[in-house]
Each structure stands twice: as C-alpha cells, then as structure tokens.
Description:
heterodimer, A: alpha/beta, B: Rossmann fold, Rossmann fold, 3 domains
Amino acid sequence: MKNEKKIEPDGEVLVEDILAKYPPKVAKKRNKSIVFNDPSKDQPIQSNVRTIPGIITQRGCCYAGCKGVVLGPTRDIINLTHGPIGCGFYSWLTRRNQTRPGPKGDNYMPYCFSTDMQDDNIVFGGEKKLKEAIQEAYDIFHPKAIGIFATCPVGLIGDDIHSVAKEMKEKLGINIFGFSCEGYKGVSQSAGHHIANNQIFKHVVGLDDKKKKGKFLINLLGEYNIGGDAFLIEDLFERCGLTLVSTFSGNSSVEQFANCHTADLNLVMCHRSINYVADMMEKKFGIPWMKINFIGANASAVSLRLIGRYFEDEELSQRIEKVIKEEMPAVEAARKEVMPHTKDKLAMIFVGGSRAHHYQELFAEIGMRTIAAGYEFAHKDDYEGRKVLPDLKVDADSRNIEELVVEKDPERYKLRKTSEELKKLRESGVEMKEYDGMMPEMVNNSVVIDDISQHETEMLIAEYKPAVFCAGIKEKYTVQKRGVPMKQLHSYDYGGPFAVFKGAVNFYREMDRTINSKVWGLIKPPWDSVPEITATFVLE
Amino acid sequence: MNVINKAQTNTATKNPCKLCSPFGASLVFKGIRGTIPILHGSQGCSTYIRRYFISHFREPVDIASSNFVEETSIFGGEKNLCEALENVNKQYNPEVIGVATTCLSETIGDDVPLFLNDFLKKKGAEPFPDIIFVSTPSYSGTHMDGFHAAVRSIVEYYSRSRQTESSASLISQAGKSVAVFPNFVSPEDIRHLKQIILDFGMKFVFVPDYSDTLDGATWDKYKKIPEGGTPKDDLLVLQKISSVIEFGDSLDGKDSAGKFLGSEFGSKRYGLGLPVGIDLTDNFLNSLEIISGRKTPDKYIAQRGRLVDAYCDAHKYLFGKKAVVFGEEDMVMSIARFLCEIGMIPVLCASGAKGDKMREISQQLFLEYKNEIIVRTKADFVDIEEESEVLNPDLLIGNSKGYSLSRKLGIPLVRVGFPIHDRFGASRISHLCYKGTQELFDRIVNAVIAKKQSESVAGYTYM
C-alpha cells in the first residue's frame, strides 16, 4: 500500500456522500455522530445512542459486556448463563483475555455453564432449573463464587435471579449473586459493563480487609489482559516497587476484588468501562484516581512518572526512572528499524471504549497519523472529556442502568490525600480524576465517527486509502477483501501483548509486517495492469 | 454388540456441543444470492452470530438486527422490524431479506408473519425484495433445527411464488436438474457436490449454496453483498424438479423441505446419509445414476478405487483404533459409519441434539460390533469428557471445542464440522464423497502416525 498522495478530502463533501445512502431520517441522525475534528474548538458529538434497526453495527449487547468483557477474565468465579444455549456458547472464551491459574489452580474460564433453557422453561419459568444448575456447579467445583447472568427471555418471563441467588447463597455458604444484564438493555455492551461493575462493587468489594504488604498499593481499573497485556504491566509494577492489589479485571480473581479497597491509588486505563467504579471507590473508601495509559512507550513512561509523583517518594521515583531507562533502548531500536517503512502512513481506528484513543499513541511513535477514529460503545465524555459530564442528559436508556448511591464507609474510609494535597498535585501537573477525551488529542481535520457502520467504513477507506485499518473481527475480512491491511484491536489478531514497553516493540514490528507484507501486492493479477492492446498480428 | 443410548443426565449444560437456532437460519440465508438476514431481536444476537461465522469462515458476514431495546421488548417489535427492513433495503439493495426470530421476539410472542404482511400491504405496488420468514426460537432444538427450518421456508416460499420470465425459460431444463439440500457442510464440500452433479450431465439447485459467499476471492471493488449463492430464478424452478436429494439421516421422518416438495409437487425424494466413506458415497452416486440415467463417470470410479486402495494400505495403522466422534448428529452418524468401514471403533458418538434418529440408526449400524458403542444425545463436553476418560480413545473427531479434551487426554483431534477456530482453512476442509473422504482418511491416518512418532523413544523417521 502506498500513501504517497497526501490530498485531504473535503470534509463536507465526504459527509454528504456518506449520508446520501441513508433515508432522510437516518441521515439526520447519523450526521450528529460524524465530526471533522478541530482540537481548538469544543465540538459536540453524538454517542451512546441506540443503533438504528437495520444499520449493521459492530456493537454487542448488554449481556456481552457484562458476562464476556468484565467478568470474562476473572478466573475463580463460575459464570452461569441463565438462558437458551446461544449466549453462553458465543461468549465462551472468545475474547483472548488471558489468566494465570490461581494458587490452588482454580480457573473456570475455559468452562461455559448454561441453564440451556428449553420451551417449557420459557412457559413455566426457569427458576427451578437455575437452582439445580447452581447446585450442580457447586457440587462439581466447590467455587468461592458463582455469578448468574440473565439473557433476554429471563426478564420477560419474570424469573427472579436475585432471589434465587440469595437463597442459594444462604444454602451453600458461598458468594452467589446475579446480573440483570438482559441483552436488550441499554444501547450497547457499555450498559453491561456498568451492571457488572455495580454488582461486583455491591457484592464483593470490601469483603476482605487483609492488607497486602508493600509501600505503594495500587489498583488497575479497566485493563482486561487481552493477549497478555496485564502480565507485562504487572511485571513492570513489580520492578518499580508498586504493589498491585487488584485489577479490574484482567488476570483477576474475586479474592482480589474483595480487598481492592485497601489500595491507596486507583489507576484508570479504560475510562469508559470503569470510571464510575473509580468514583464510587473514592467516595466510599477515600481512594483517589488518575487516568493513565499503558499503550505506547511514551505514554507508559508518562503514566509511571505520574504514579511516582502521586506518592511523593523520591526512592520510588528513582526506581521508576531506572526501569524506564532499562526499557527504552529496545523501544528506540525497534522504532528506528521500522520508522522508514511506516513514517507518514495513515491509520484508522474504530474500536472500544478507549483503545481508539490509546492506540493513536503507538501509531504516532512510528510516525503514523491516525486520520480517522471512533468508538463502538463509548459515551460523550470519552470523546470530549469529563468537562461535559455536568451537562449530560440522562436518557431513557441510561435510566435503566442502576446508578449506585454510595456513601462513606464508616470503618473502611481513609483519607489518602487531603484536598490541599490534591490541589498541590494538580497544580504541579498531576491531574487527578481528569480525562480530556480523545478529540482534543487528535489532529486537525481528522474524522471522528461514533458507532461507525459498515457503509461508512467503506466510504472512509475509499476516500483515504489508509495503510492500516484497526477494528474487530467483524470488520476484518471486509476490509482485507479489498487489499487494505486490517489489524484487530479487540483480540489483537492472535498477536500481542501490546502494552507498555515490550508491547510497544511488538506493535511496531507487527505494524511493519502488516503494512508492508508482500501479499497486498498480489491482489491485482498481472494481466489486469497490461495495457489494452498489446497483441500484434503475426502475419501483416 | 451392545449399543448404549444415553441422554442428558445433568441439569446445566456445561461446555455445550450445540449452538442456537437463529445461527443455523442465518447460515442458510447466506447461501441464497443477494440475501441479507435480519435477526428479529436484540443486536447482540447478530453480533455474536456474525462473530462466530467470521472466526470459522474468515469472510465478511453481514447480518442485520431489528435492535430491540427495553421498550421494544414490552410493546413488541413491529416498528423496529419495519424500520430494519427499510434500512437494509436502502443500504444493501438486496434481492432477498431473510427474517429469523430469536428467543426474545418469540418469548414476547411477536406475530412476525402478520407484521410482514402488513408491511408489504403498505408498500402496495412499490417493488421490495422478497422477504422469507423463519421462526427460530433459540430455546428450541439446536442450530441444525434452525438450519433445516430455514431451508424449508425458502423452498416453500419459492415453490409457491409466481414464475418470472427468466425462471420460466429455466423450467424447460428442469427435467435434467436435481435439487440438493446438502445439510451443514463446508464450502469445499458444496463445490465438490456441484461438480459431481455436473459430471453426471445435470443441473442443480442447492439450498443453501454458500460455497462462494463464505469462501470467496479478494475484491477489486467493494461489494455490499458477496457474489454467489443460489439465484432466485433457480429457486423458482424447484417445484418442477422431479428429483430431490436431501442429506441427513435426522431428516428422515421429519417435515423437511424434501418431504414438502414430495407431498406438494410429487418430487421423488432421495433421503441419504451425508456421503462420507465408500458405502454412503456409493448410495449417493447410485441415486445420481437413477436420476440422470447415466453411469458414474470414470473419474469417480478411479477416486473410489484410490480410496479403497488407501483403506487397504493404512489398515495396519487404524485397525481397532478407538475414536470419539462429536458434533452435528448427521455428520457424526456418517463419520461413525465411515469409521466402521475402515476398521476403527466409534466408541462414543455424541451430539448436543435431541437425536432420536441417531439413537435409532445406531442400533442397527453397530450390530456387527463386539465392542460397546455409546451413543449420547443432548450431550455436552463434560459428558463427552466423562465418557472418554473411561473409554480411553485413540483420537477425537469433531470441532475445535474438543481441543481441551484432546489436550487433557493427550490424543489428537481431527477437526471436522463447525466451529473450527483454532486451525486455518475451515472453509476448505473436505468431508464428502470419495475425494473428501480420502482427505479425511489421510488426516486421520496421519494423526495416528504422528502421535506414534512423537511418542517413540527412538525418534523414527520411517513410520
């Protein structure tokens, strides 16, 4: 793929072309979700609104976000799907989130448990079957915890999973709780993240007051260990002298969630899926939070330094500097190696919650420009920053998702930093509880599209001919059919890890291989480029 | 001999050996030219099902949704469905829209046929793509029930539709055509079946034919709907075709598409087991000889000869080896018969399906065996694992979901069926007829040899 032409398309014309294919009502609605970025201005973008029926979205459902994304990577809880078989099957270990088995080897992630509801359960109710299924799961594994996940029909037939959970919890003496994450709730998987996190907060967080040894106790929120990212981050923390109490929820265990309130700082990675947990933990336990990003070598260094400054400890800061110094030479070497092949090429990223933002760092490090980006399930604050939060209107779909009312825990609340100290930190550049969103950091005149459709994807690719398009498996083969390299950033396309320094090296090299592979040159057969008439008559 | 039939013993399904019915319906719709499926329910169903298709076939798969939200679930999905139909039509300009229900729309009792009727009435004379409806409540049966229901819906729809001019011209050739309902097989299998029928001098109508739509070439320009699939004009000829081949033992005695053509239009139905192995392929080619009035082309006689020759040559590796076979019941039963042919013992045949027919057939099929054969219906992988630990098999034959068992037991898994998401080339796996069986056979032999080799202390290179 060559990107020699640097002619920027006319934004207005492109948007007109995109919208022309839609019926007028749809066009009007989609128009609000497409913005030509001008970082010097506050530009509103429509997001977290329902997908229009018949517009093929890449979004998943509430159940997917709850069971698959948030609880998916937690090894020591049995996730029991209450519903027909499909939902359980499709969410059975498909996200490539990795885990290390616990000290006792407990790891239920490779298992898919389902009540496999049948006609008669729909007609007569499925609570009895659910109870039996819980009993069975208990008898086989004796787990510490069981989570029950509701699928679409459950809410409609009136099965009360929460009372079943309560009854079985008393009977079996282990932690059992339900998630009302029926697929039709909310507008995307984001609703499911919220429901999952709320239930974990209500039923697990704060159950264990045992404090881990270590001087600097932290939680990492919104990191899901795709492709082994968390393993690299954990290693880095250890070398820096930081003690990780819990991760929500990559390489995690319910045990860790239970004493996460003993940490002294929360680091928020994926703002979308977890910022509300950070807020709740601050209110209830007094733990401040900061937004960090471990995707990109520079971003990782910046994030580590921020942590050092938060703890205001000279020794810690020195240790962090030492680790950064150890890591950077390999990063620089790899950068130098791939830069000649990647510089000035264009990337597009349509993925996530936060990845569409974070991965721009990695591309920038190898000289590539992210010309278009958007989220699949994010909200307005993830685009425009938390400054828009006070003005956000609560619509019908958000109202359906429970907002927990949290108060100071009388025993467990501990003030980590006084407001004076926090203010001082902020003045020195250590932003707490802040996130500016993706748009202010994107280049001028780049395209931002929320919940991009297949049709819009095609138009963008045709117009800009990017060197690489990043999204998920559902878009992968449509993009590659036309000879445009495509990188999955949900599952990392069987590659990774891409986090922190070693991950950055992996990413640089992988992008080089992806973009510059010879296969893209084979797509046009030689006879297609032969001029029209080349034959001559033998006898003339 | 002793065939032990076992059905589900546990309440919960753990590591399921089946998928849900809208999945099967969506697959069938991908095999009709110019079709976009719409799943009537919440958007997760489309997303999940697309994701699963794509990880197996590695092709673009668009499936729309009527995107239910909370209020749709309370007040019904008519408005959403109509909106989805309009938007799909406008964006994709399809020839056909296939509408399948989900557990959500079935639970609330949406009367989709009525919605569609009203929708088309309102459209009046305005042209609109054909809309084919199939009811696929996910809480009933497996993905194969959705598959067969969709085949029947399509066949019923078009054999009751009015002929078009172009289809009328095809009708004169209908006498030399055969309708094939191939069951859930790979794109490569479909291509092979088509070639065989062509070699018998006949034309065909496949329902479905996703051999191109789910295994296509790169594109020079973007295509909203991948090329390929059975064209509508061919489907309109179905009622005039006098012979129908329907693969799958499980369909015998059921209200299948083939039965429908038989009872409504007097077509002769050839209900055959999926042609894996010599015996079942012989059956298939015999049927083609009868239908076409031609002898089996030499090419296939030669393929048969090579396959039998291979059976003889590899007998020393396979004789008495025990296999566990799992997956869709029709594929399981055909592979089991093939294993009997080559001297292996299918010690456990398992499927997530209800499998009445599987139980029935196995009673006769395994008569000759001294060994116990266990047939498990409504099975999940925990059942399969429990049985396998006792049976001590030499290899597993089935889909990628058997990998953890294969790892645990330290025995090879020969991958067939769906899903195959831990190996490359699932679309091009051959299972059928002499040629497909040959490939499958070679893979089985080599799996056995490879294990023996890797475990040999001496490290032999000559096996």
